[in-house]
Structures are given as C-alpha cells and as structure tokens.
Amino acid sequence: MTLALTRRTALAVSLAAFALPGAGRAQTREIFEMSLGAPDAPVTLVEYAMFTCPHCKAFHEEVFPQIKKNFIDTGKVRLVYREVYFNRPSLWAAMIARCAPADRYFGIVDLLFERQAEWSGAFDSEPMMKELYSIGRQAGLSDEEMEACVTDRDFAEALVAEFQKNATADGIDATPTFLIDGEKVSNMNYADFEARLNEALDG
Questions:
Q1: What is the pLDDT of residue 28?
Q2: Which of 69, 72, 87, 141 might form a disulfide with 37, Cβ 3.0–4.6 angstroms?
Q3: Secondary-structure breakdown of the chain: helix, strand, coil percentages, each rounded to the nearest 5
Q4: What are 21-73's pLDDT values in tens digits?
Q5: What stretches of 68-142 show up as alpha helix (H) in DSSP?
Q6: Contact 165, 11 (CB under 8 A)
Q7: Directed axis angle between helix 153-170 and helix 88-99, to 10°?
Q8: Rounded distance, CA 203 to CA 199, Å?
C-alpha cells in the first residue's frame, strides 16, 4: 500500500520534524534543487519520494534505472528529485544526503534505499543515526560534518519549508508521486512510464 496521508496530517508531521538536539542554530546552508540530466531536456520529470517509503525504494531499484538509461542519460528527460518529510527519519536521512557535496547526493540516495531496512527499522534515534552515519561515511563524510548537519535547526527548518511549499503547490499526499511536465501521475511500472514519457516527448 502506498503511504497516503491527508495534507493536513502531512504538514503537521513535517512541522514537528526538526533537527536532532545539539548545537542549535548554525551557519545557514543553501537549499538546492537536486536534479539529474540535461538542464535543457525537452521533458521534466519531478519525483516526490520519501527515504523510509518501501514503494519509493522499489521504484528506485526496479524502474528508475531504466528511465535513467533510456531517457535521462540520452538527454530527453531531466529529473528533479524532491524529498518528502512525512516523518522525522526521512528528514534526518535527507540532511545526511545533503551534507555531502552535490555530486555525491544521488550516490547517497542509492545507499539510503539500498540499506533502508537497516536504518529505518531502528526503534529510536540513536541506533537510527548510527546507521545513517555509517552510510555517510561510505560517501566520504566525517562524523563531525554529519553532526554539524543533523543538529543544524536552521537547515532542518529550511528543508521543511521548501518541502511544504512544493508539496502544497503540487498537492502531494502520497509517495512516490510524479509530475511529467507539470501533470501529476502516480507510481507506474516501467512500460507505463515509458509510454507517458514518450507521449510527452511527442507532444
């Protein structure tokens, strides 16, 4: 079953999803839109995904590689990846991913989904963060760098605000959800995605 929440519930949960207790306010980090593919690609695919969502993991591992090979790597489609924070662990995972330089972001996304059961199944923040730090180290981050990210309240609040702005504008209440050139579509198998993307390219 796809995770579905009312918009009111989603926003209420996201409002509570701030940084881990720690140093408090820190240097403000700029929030970038994460994307793959040619900036001038004729079609834009926006993906709203949550790192704790099993259906997002399935899409990332089973469908996305074919979309990337056949549409993104060929210059036909630009992917814009937008994180969803319906719970705190998804926010913490995103903060770890965004702590790295932008060119490592999607590599960390791969690891977060690959090891989803290991970190998202933890019952409290301490073992969960231990697993997330392990993923960050695989991407070359130091514990000090990750600590600075996940305890940065300004950073957390900025990410939540950006999520709320985009999710409200696009009516996002479930993950994964996609927009193809602005038209919202639900999760699909590759054959259906291929047909919809080709239709957008032909249009």
A1: 61
A2: 72
A3: 55, 15, 30
A4: 554 444 567 888 999 999 999 999 999 999 999 999 999 999 999 999 999 99
A5: 88-99, 105-114, 116-120, 125-138
A6: no
A7: 110
A8: 6
Q: Is 107 exposed, middle or buried (0-12, 13-18, 19+ CB in 10 A)?
A: middle
Residue whose token pair is 């306010």 = 25
Q: In the structure encoding, which two tokens stand for residue 202, read together? A: 């032909």
Q: How many residues does the chain have?
A: 203
Q: Which are the contacts of 160, defined by CB distance < 8 A and separation ≥ 6?
A: 14, 15, 17, 18, 85, 91
Question: Distance between CA atoms of 175 and 51, rounded to whole angstroms?
Answer: 10
Q: Which residues 6+ apart lie within 8 Å of 183 measured at CB?
A: none
Amino acid at 102: A
Q: Which residue has the tokens 């993104």?
A: 72
Digit-coded pLDDT (tens) for 159-181:
999 999 999 999 999 999 999 99
